[in-house]
Automatic annotation (TrEMBL):
UniProt domain SRP54-type proteins GTP-binding: residue ranges: 98-299
Domain annotation AAA+ ATPase: ranges: 97-248
GN (gene name): ftsY
GO biological process: SRP-dependent cotranslational protein targeting to membrane
Matching InterPro entries: AAA+_ATPase (IPR003593), P-loop_NTPase (IPR027417), Signal_recog_particl_SRP54_hlx (IPR013822), SR_rcpt_FtsY (IPR004390), SRP/SRP_N (IPR036225), SRP54_GTPase_dom (IPR000897), SRP54_N_sf (IPR042101)
Subunit structure: Part of the signal recognition particle protein translocation system, which is composed of SRP and FtsY. SRP is a ribonucleoprotein composed of Ffh and a 4.5S RNA molecule.
Keyword Cell membrane attributed: yes
Species of provenance: Sphingomonas parva
UniProt GO cellular component terms: cytoplasm; plasma membrane
This protein's name: Signal recognition particle receptor FtsY
Swiss-Prot/TrEMBL catalytic activity: GTP + H2O = GDP + phosphate + H(+)
SMART domains: AAA, SRP54, SRP54_N
Domain of life: Bacteria
Length: 299
């Protein structure tokens, strides 16, 4: 919990910096409200969230003046209202097994690390886990996932660089079914440079999966790098279209000042947020707690 708060410190500090000078004004007039709204937008929270907080502030009376504590409290409450409906842990509940979880996102967003963290989390919950190295485009991605599979102690299905990712997914489902493994977590290519290729590749994976189990993939989780700020939002847009995203995991929330984008994403897309990444280790995936997160962001 402390690490989570520490992770959001730069985000809440930036919010504080942006709001400085607005506290303790005598009157909450239109100009002050405008400035607060701008400060919230500059903190990556998004225009809709900022507008919502503005309306809330305008409706409040501040008997002690516009104190920093009072403003931060209202910001926290409004953020929590936005985050609460989307907080949804990734549950293993598919029947028949395996539950197939596709992990999508641009290269460098933290996909491989997130797969390892999720695998580790499910193992701790006593589920059987199999990984599939479906990003066959990059040899490094296959190698890195193998290293993680070893480290967390789970089997992995992989093929050669440049191989057919849908064949690997096919083998993965076969193996998981034969061995009664609960979940198959699939890495996928993150080449957004060529949207059409990526779309075709994901479509092929879906076709192959669908033949084995019409309900698969059960989850399509988009991994987002919080440090990219507003870029994360355009990635949601694109991946919703090419991959049929069912939920989000935001990574690298440790030490970025751009953590506000988590709120903007929740507000704009309403997609489930399964967890957040706050470090590079296998234990650094946290369940997404709206109250704690809202308070960490608001400071
Ligand atoms: P991929 O290309 O999407 O598979 O990304 P990787 O999983 O290889 O991650 C890219 C880099 O980000 C690596 O150096 C990871 O250690 C790092 N990384 C991943 N998740 C986090 C996180 O939550 N916090 C921090 N600080 N670094 C992370």
């Amino acid at each position: 919990l402390d690490r989570l708060q520490a992770g959001f410190r730069k985000t809440s500090e930036r919010l504080g910096d942006n709001l400085t000078g607005l506290f303790n004004r005598a009157a909450l007039d239109e100009q002050t409200l405008d400035e607060i709204e701008e400060a919230l937008i500059a903190s990556d929270l998004g225009p809709a969230t900022a507008g919502r907080i503005r309306v809330r502030l305008a409706g409040e009376t501040f008997p002690l003046g516009l104190t920093e504590t009072a403003v931060r409290e209202i910001v926290a409450e409004e953020i929590e209202k936005i985050l609460a409906p989307v907080a949804q842990p990734l549950e293993i509940d598919a029947f028949p097994r395996p539950q197939v979880i596709l992990i999508v996102g641009v290269n460098g967003s933290g996909k491989t690390t997130t797969i390892a963290k999720l695998g580790h989390l499910f193992l701790e919950q006593d589920y059987g886990v199999l990984l599939a190295a479906g990003d066959t485009f990059r040899a490094a991605a296959i190698g890195q996932l193998k290293v993680w599979a070893d480290r967390i102690g789970v089997p992995i299905i992989s093929g050669p660089e440049g191989g057919d990712s849908s064949a690997i997914v096919f083998d993965g489902v076969k193996k998981a079914t034969a061995e009664g493994i609960d979940t198959l977590i699939v890495d996928t290519a993150g080449r957004l440079q060529n949207k059409k290729d990526l779309m075709d590749e994901l479509a092929k994976i879906r076709r192959v999966l669908g033949r084995l189990n019409p309900a698969a993939p059960h989850d399509v989780v988009l991994v987002l790098d919080a440090t990219t700020g507003q870029n994360a939002l355009s990635q949601i847009e694109v991946f919703k279209e090419v991959a049929g995203v069912t939920g989000l995991i935001m990574t690298k929330l440790d030490g970025t000042a751009r953590g506000g984008v988590l709120v903007a994403a929740a507000e704009r897309y309403g997609l489930p947020i399964h967890a957040i990444g706050i470090g590079e280790g296998m234990n650094d995936l946290r369940p997404f707690d709206p109250r704690v997160t809202a308070r960490a962001i608001a400071g």
